[in-house]
Design a protein that fits this description.
Blueprint (H helix, E strand, L loop, with lengths): L14 H4 L27 H4 L6 H12 L8 H7 L4 H13 L3 E7 L5 E7 L23 H4 L17 H6 L1 H9 L1 H4 L7 H16 L4 H9 L10 H11 L20 E3 L6 E3 L8 H6 L5
Antiparallel strand pairs: 1-2, 3-4
Length: 294
């Protein structure tokens, strides 16, 4: 009656008990042997380390950038000097991180006016927060469009030059222009702009009107120039045209009606300006000192 049935199992056996060598884990996978970090560690989300679209280089570079201290360089040249990958592969990886929101690169202007690239690392894309206090100077506020360009001081106007008569200005304009444009052949520092030339032409005409030869005008403008660089050659020429202006030629007083004032023309012998009828091609000095053919 109280005899036990020795063939009946005393308890239900589990599969593990029936096969003690069988493991509860999937065979062949990674086995983690972790030790808790207390210093020098960075918390990185699995959304970066296991990102399904980023390349392995971009994931590794993103982890490296997140581990850098604030203010460390993260440009392409600095990263290429740190790793064996070239600038082309590193630039492509940075573009991947930027496209998926792990990186922001902005060009900003410093207080000294220099343009720099500021790199911002985002450990959680889509969750923009205020950056932690890392004792780094905050980027200066971007100036308004009207304040970006430095205020240039207005350029000082050129000194005034002597003004010729209307008749001389018409007859000798081209000769005076040619004289000024050829000054650079004598001194390369006397290269004048079109605006400076137009300002100086009346002063040169005033000299030619007073029967000064073009050679004498060139000598007066180019003689004894300073050895230092000329900051404004047009201003120096304007000063010389005014300060060294010769007096007008003397005229003999005649009894009777005033003499006929012939048009101003240029002598074919000495290039000096003189007044004479249209039939005369040489000035009085050339007619008396050298033979010529009419």
């Amino acid at each position: 009656m109280g005899t036990e049935n020795p063939s009946a199992p005393s308890r239900a056996q589990s599969a593990a008990d029936r096969n003690p060598t069988r493991s509860r884990h999937r065979p062949g996978g990674i086995v983690h042997e972790n030790t808790r970090h207390t210093t020098r560690f960075t918390v990185i989300g699995n959304h970066l380390t296991q990102h399904p679209e980023l390349s392995l280089l971009a994931i590794g570079l993103g982890c490296h950038i997140q581990s850098l201290p604030a203010g460390a360089p993260a440009d392409i040249k600095s990263l290429a000097a740190r790793f064996k990958e070239g600038t082309t592969r590193i630039a492509a990886a940075l573009r991947e991180l930027e496209a998926h929101g792990y990186l922001r690169r902005e060009r900003v202007r410093t207080a000294t006016g220099r343009i720099i690239t500021r790199t911002t690392s985002c450990n959680q894309p889509g969750h923009r927060r205020e950056p932690a206090n890392t004792d780094c100077p905050a980027p200066p506020p971007r100036p308004a469009a009207s304040d970006r360009a430095p205020q240039r001081r207005p350029r000082k106007a050129l000194p005034a030059v002597p003004q010729p008569t209307q008749a001389a200005a018409t007859a000798l304009h081209q000769q005076a222009t040619d004289l000024l444009t050829t000054l650079r052949r004598l001194d390369s520092r006397l290269l004048l702009s079109a605006t400076d030339t137009a300002h100086l032409v009346p002063g040169v005409i005033a000299w030619l009107e007073r029967e000064v030869t073009p050679t004498a005008v060139r000598h007066a403008l180019t003689a004894d120039l300073p050895d230092d660089p000329l900051r404004r050659p047009a201003a120096l020429l304007a000063h010389r045209l005014t300060a060294h202006l010769p007096p007008p030629p003397p005229y003999r007083a005649l009894v009777g009606p005033p003499p006929v004032r012939h048009p101003l023309r240029t002598c074919e012998g000495c290039e000096r300006a003189f007044r004479a009828p249209e039939t005369e091609t040489h000035c009085r000095d050339c007619r008396t000192t050298a033979p010529f053919t009419r």
